[in-house]
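Box 3.1 A note on notation
Throughout this textbook, protein chains are presented in two layers. The first layer is the amino acid sequence; the second is a token string describing backbone geometry. Keep the layers aligned when reading.
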Amino acid sequence: MQNVKLCIWLLERILKIKIREIRYPETEKSIDLRQDSKSVRLDVYVEDEARTVYNIEMQTTKGRQGELAKRARYYQGLIDMDQLTPGIHYTALRPTFIIFICTFDLFGLGERIYTFRNHCIERPEVELGDETRKIFVNAKGSKGAVDEDFEDFLNFIEGQEPHREIVKEIAREVENVKNRKEMRRAFVTRYMENLEYRREGIEEGRAQTLLTMAKNMLRNGMSLETVAKVADVSEKDILDLAAAHGVQLGC
């Protein structure tokens, strides 16, 4: 989904709309608003030219009863809180789509796409108008009109070989990502064996090992946040260590 063309294609097929462009505010958006609340890391967080927000998540397990529905509710609340700073009016909240692409039928009704909006129970034709939708894509679904490309995409998620050219392109992108992950895993293994870093009293040799690892990981496209998590230190620790040794990390 970091491929702009493929991300737009998927959103257009799920929502049946046209999107001119999208942008990625963050590659993996983390929302951690309070120390005493549960933080989340969103798989894909993008905005289109109208500043509509799309959160896309891949889900391979149902989890506990009602978990995904409650998780969608929590994600929506955090995304809304993240948009509003003190003094900003509620009308500044942007339209939001939370999309789960599932390898199972969460609701057991066979629909390829389940779309939820807020309606009045007494008058179903009256919509709340909060501009939020929660969508569950069902790779096992057989009901609901979709084009041949999207049907092939759902079959691909189910493990079948792709036949349509756009889905073959998605499959190639998946392989590229897998290869990059394998490279990163091997790289991390190489530099992290027996590495024990502590915030206080770092031995010079270990400090140099950490800095070498950080430089190489950043050069290979990883974020400083990822480097810090792998090394089990804070981003500030790495930056302070680099400054103390006169090392340019290039981040």
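The longest helix spans residues 165-192. The radius of gyration is 22 Å.
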